[in-house]
Write a structure and sequence with these properties.
By secondary structure, the protein is of the alpha/beta class. The chain contains 17 helices and 9 strands.
């Protein structure tokens, strides 16, 4: 219960009480309605509801034997707030307040609003007054008169219901036929043609429905189909399918299976579009990989490696779809991180050093660049080769100096292990040197020199 209304009567005259305010509403009236009679499945099989302005009219209709659902709006301004159920037919039992009365505008407004939700009729007494006035003036004969006035509207709505039922059966048959055509398609072209037929059918449906309010689901499909055409979704879906088929990435069978297992055409188009994007990325990567395999110089391979990394890093914030397989997302993320950390320049600098220092040849560098390793792993491997080379060379040279020999390096002669190692530390990247071992050797020799100096001082 949301609210109510009381009407005070005069027990002697059976009329409204002769006081200033005989009728008063309380609680929430807007959007609230009083059920006077529900009818039943047998007497009201077509779900017809009569909305009466006031309680007197509603009770008069019931007394007259109008055996459909009757509700009271508790005021003319509340009629527009009624919300019909799906398929419910509405008759407004209005008062006849005169042709030019302002209440006609209120009823017209209610009619306009409710007509968007249901089939609506407005019925009024033939002469000035309401349906209760007919009963008061004509007594028992008035009940027949009320039924006579309401009967044409009730019959009209029964006919509308039957029309809607026939239209529903026809619409369902058309839907089943279109779905069957899509399901039975043997090729992608056949399926797409059937889908196009279905989309066009629904896109025009709102123009062909006599009672659109009775088909809310069909209207939703209609709106979706119209947006589908406006957005060019079908064209993209056709192009995506064509590309996947022509490149051999998908077969007719694969695409048809996805179509039948996907919920809705938009989702299917999105899936196809994502597959096209993934296929395009893999194809570009494969093309670069083929060029690397066919390249004949280290410089050429490195430039292709750089091209591949720039392409992948550029996808980080430019993918149309985020639902790609994780392995693809990982290499894109990795390439982006390599770019941020300047890994390609680090690799280039180390490779250039290894070549200038005659540690690795061009062919050996090309082998590293053509490997399936990531950029950081390539850098690590080349750095390790340089590290091992330096450790072996420094060990050999230090032993020669300790044996009394001299080592010539970068135009300088070295006969001291400490100076020789410090020279290497100054001019060569520490990551490529056995730096801890070098520092240990330097510390040892410096300590030996200090001991010799102390011993020499004591001798003096």
């Amino acid at each position: 219960i949301t609210g109510g209304q009381y009407l005070l009567l005069d027990s002697k005259t059976n009329n409204k009480a002769d006081i200033a305010i005989p009728r008063k509403s309380f609680g929430t009236i807007s959007g609230s309605f009083v059920n006077i009679s529900n009818g039943d499945e047998k007497s009201n099989p077509h779900n017809i509801t009569i909305i009466a302005e006031g309680i007197e009219t509603a009770l008069s209709l019931k007394q007259s034997g109008i055996d459909v659902r009757i509700v009271c709006a508790l005021g003319i301004s509340n009629i527009k707030n009624y919300v019909p159920e799906d398929g419910e037919q509405v008759i407004i039992a209005a008062d006849n307040d005169g042709k030019n009365d302002i209440t006609n505008n209120t009823i017209d407004k209610a009619y306009d609003i409710l007509s968007k939700l249901s089939s609506v009729s407005v019925v009024r007494p033939e002469h000035h007054g309401d349906f209760n006035d007919i009963l008061q003036e004509q007594g028992k004969a008035g009940e027949a008169k009320v039924r006579e006035i309401l009967e044409p509207a009730i019959k009209k709505h029964v006919a509308i219901i039957k029309d809607i039922e026939l239209a529903s059966q026809k619409l369902n048959a058309q839907y089943q036929s279109l779905e069957y055509e899509i399901k039975e398609a043997k090729t992608v072209d056949e399926a797409l043609n059937a889908i196009s037929k279905k989309v066009n059918f629904y896109a025009e449906l709102d123009k062909n429905l006599k009672y659109p309010y009775a088909f809310p689901k069909a209207l939703a499909s209609c709106k979706e189909a119209q947006l589908f055409k406006e957005d060019g979704v079908f064209s993209r879906m056709h192009e995506s399918s064509k590309q996947l088929l022509s490149d051999g990435f998908k077969s007719d069978k694969d695409i048809l299976k996805e179509l039948h297992n996907t919920n809705g055409l938009r989702e299917f188009n999105k899936k196809l579009d994502q597959e096209v994007e993934a296929h395009s990325i893999h194809k570009n990567i494969a093309d670069i990989a083929k060029q690397k395999d066919e390249a004949t110089t280290a410089k050429e391979v490195f430039h292709l490696l750089q091209k591949e990394q720039e392409y992948l890093a550029g996808l980080q914030d430019n993918l149309q779809h985020k639902g790609h397989e994780q392995s693809l997302l990982n290499i894109i993320k990795q390439a982006h991180e390599f770019k941020v950390n300047d890994e390609m320049n680090n690799l280039l600098n180390t490779a250039n050093y290894s070549f200038k220092a005659k540690i690795l040849s061009r062919d050996e560098l090309m082998t590293h660049f053509k490997s399936a390793n990531s950029i950081d792993k390539m850098h690590e491997n080349i750095s390790q080769v340089c590290y091992d080379h330096h450790r072996s060379l420094l060990t050999k040279h230090c032993n020669k100096i300790l044996a009394g020999g001299t080592i010539k390096h970068q135009g300088q002669d070295f006969d001291c292990v400490v100076k020789y190692l410090e020279h290497w530390k100054e001019y060569v990247d520490h990551k490529l040197l056995p730096i801890e071992k070098m520092d240990h050797v330097i510390d040892q020799h410096l300590e030996q020199q200090r001991q010799m100096e102390r011993s020499h001082s004591m001798s003096i």
